[in-house]
C-alpha cells in the first residue's frame, strides 16, 4: 500500500445518533488514517459529550482540538465557511452542511465524496459497493460498504492487532494485571463473560440458567442500557460501576465505561462476549472468542435480515448441531425470548465454537482492512495523482 502524503486532507463527518457505534467507528478510522497512512484528518462531530465517553481527554466545549493526531472539530448548527478536503466521508449517510457541499463544488478539482455505510453481510452489498450515488453539482458521491466478503470494504483492523491480541491471550499474567486494574478478581475455574447490550427481556432467563449452572460464571457488565434489566433480575436499584453481586454460581460485576483500547483487552480476556451495534461487534470478532450479537433494532424488523445474513456466513464450516445451537441462541436473544435452553445447547458445542471463532477471525484478516481499502479506493479514483 503506497503511503499517502501528509498534505492530503480527509474530512470525516459523524452525526451521533443515540449510541456509541457511529462515533466509535469514525474515531477508530480517523486515528488509523493518521497513524498508518500519514493523512491529515478532521473529524467533525455534532455531540462531543458522547465522544467524551470514548476519549476522556476531549474538551466538550472546544470548537477545535487535536486528539492523538486527529483534528477534532465541533460540527456547529450554524456552519461557518470551511475549505473542503480532498476526501470527504459522510459516515452512516449523515447529511453534510449545505455550506460545506458548496465548498466541495467550488474546488478546482472535486473531492472524493464517500458515504461510509452501515456494516452488513447481505449479498446486495457486494453489488453496490463502490458504485456512484447522487451528484451535487460537479461532485459525485460513492457508496462504500464495510463487509465480510471479497468485493466489500472489509472491517476496521489496525496494523498488528491480531498479533497483540495473541500475545495478550497467551500471557495469563498480562490478563491478570489488566483485570485487576478494573477491580476484577476472577474466581478459580469461573468462565468470564462480557455483556454489552441494549435492553433485552430475554436477559433474566439467561442469568437464571447461569446462576443454576455447575460451572461458575463471572459476568462483566460495562455501564450501559442493559443495566436496568440486570437490576430487575437482582431486585435492586442504582447499579453503578464497581458493584458486585453473587447469586449461586453467577457473579455479576458492573464495570465503568472504558476507552476503546481497554475494551479490546476486556474482550480478549473473556471466554464469551455479548456485544451490540457495530463497533463492539467487529471488535468481538477480532477477539477470536465465541460471541453473541445484539443487533440494533430497525423499523419493520429489517435488522433481522442483516442478522440472518451474517449467521449464514458466520456458521459455515460448523457441524449442523453447533450451527443450530449458536443460531438459535442469537435468534432468541434478538427476539427477547427465553435463553435457557439455547444456552445449555450452545455449551454442549463449546470446543467447536471456540475453534470456529478463531478460524473466522483469521479468515476475515485475509481481507484488506477498511482504512487501507478507503485509501486504495481514493488512489484508484484519482489515478494515483496528487490532489490540487
From TrEMBL:
Q: Does the keyword Protein transport apply?
A: no
Gene name of the encoded protein:
earP
Q: Which residues form the signal peptide?
A: none
Q: Would you identify the family this protein belongs to, as annotated?
A: Belongs to the glycosyltransferase 104 family.
Relate the protein's function as given in its record: Protein-arginine rhamnosyltransferase that catalyzes the transfer of a single rhamnose to elongation factor P (EF-P) on 'Lys-32', a modification required for EF-P-dependent rescue of polyproline stalled ribosomes.
Q: Which InterPro entries match?
A: EarP
Q: What is the protein name for this chain?
A: Protein-arginine rhamnosyltransferase
Species of provenance: Pseudomonas hormoni
Task: Give GO MF terms, alphabetically.
Answer: translation elongation factor activity
Give any Pfam family that matches. EarP
Catalyzed chemical reaction(s): dTDP-beta-L-rhamnose + L-arginyl-[protein] = N(omega)-(alpha-L-rhamnosyl)-L-arginyl-[protein] + dTDP + H(+)
Q: Which UniProt keywords apply?
A: Elongation factor, Glycosyltransferase, Protein biosynthesis, Transferase
Superkingdom, natural source: Bacteria
Amino acid at each position: 500500500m503506497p503511503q499517502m502524503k501528509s498534505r492530503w486532507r480527509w474530512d470525516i463527518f459523524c452525526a451521533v445518533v443515540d449510541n456509541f457505534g457511529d462515533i466509535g467507528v469514525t474515531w477508530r478510522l480517523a486515528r488509523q488514517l493518521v497513524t498508518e497512512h500519514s493523512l491529515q484528518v478532521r473529524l467533525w462531530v455534532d455531540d462531543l459529550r458522547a465522544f467524551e465517553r470514548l476519549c476522556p481527554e476531549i474538551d466538550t466545549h472546544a470548537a477545535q482540538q487535536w486528539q492523538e493526531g486527529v483534528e477534532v472539530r465541533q460540527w456547529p448548527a450554524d456552519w461557518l465557511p470551511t475549505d473542503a478536503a480532498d476526501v470527504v466521508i459522510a459516515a452512516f449517510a449523515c447529511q453534510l452542511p449545505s455550506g460545506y457541499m458548496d465548498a466541495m463544488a467550488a474546488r478546482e478539482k472535486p473531492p472524493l465524496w464517500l458515504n461510509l455505510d452501515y456494516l452488513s453481510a447481505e449479498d446486495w452489498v457486494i453489488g453496490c459497493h463502490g458504485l456512484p450515488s447522487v451528484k451535487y453539482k460537479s461532485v459525485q458521491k460513492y457508496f462504500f460498504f464495510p463487509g465480510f466478503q471479497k468485493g466489500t470494504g472489509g472491517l476496521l483492523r489496525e496494523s498488528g492487532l491480531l498479533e497483540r491480541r495473541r500475545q495478550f491471550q497467551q500471557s495469563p499474567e498480562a490478563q491478570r494485571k489488566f483485570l485487576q486494574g478494573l477491580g476484577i478478581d476472577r474466581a478459580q475455574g469461573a468462565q468470564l463473560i462480557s455483556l454489552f447490550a441494549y435492553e433485552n427481556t430475554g436477559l433474566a432467563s439467561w442469568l437464571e440458567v447461569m446462576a443454576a449452572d455447575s460451572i461458575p460464571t463471572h459476568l462483566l457488565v460495562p455501564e450501559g442500557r442493559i443495566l436496568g434489566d440486570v437490576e430487575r433480575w437482582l431486585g435492586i436499584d442504582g447499579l453503578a460501576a464497581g458493584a458486585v453481586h453473587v447469586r449461586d454460581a453467577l457473579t455479576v460485576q458492573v464495570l465503568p465505561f472504558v476507552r476503546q483500547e481497554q475494551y479490546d483487552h476486556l474482550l480478549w480476556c473473556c471466554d464469551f462476549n455479548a456485544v451490540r451495534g457495530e463497533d463492539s461487534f467487529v471488535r468481538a470478532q477480532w477477539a477470536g472468542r465465541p460471541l453473541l450479537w445484539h443487533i440494533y433494532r430497525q423499523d419493520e424488523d429489517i435488522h433481522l435480515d442483516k442478522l440472518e445474513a451474517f449467521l449464514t456466513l458466520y456458521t459455515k464450516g460448523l457441524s449442523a448441531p453447533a450451527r443450530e445451537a449458536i443460531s438459535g441462541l442469537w435468534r432468541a436473544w434478538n427476539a427477547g425470548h427465553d435463553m435457557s435452553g439455547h444456552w445449555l445447547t450452545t455449551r454442549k458445542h463449546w470446543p467447536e465454537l471456540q475453534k470456529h471463532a478463531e478460524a473466522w477471525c483469521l479468515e476475515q484478516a485475509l481481507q484488506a482492512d477498511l482504512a487501507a481499502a478507503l485509501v486504495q479506493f481514493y488512489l484508484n479514483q484519482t489515478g494515483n495523482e496528487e490532489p490540487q
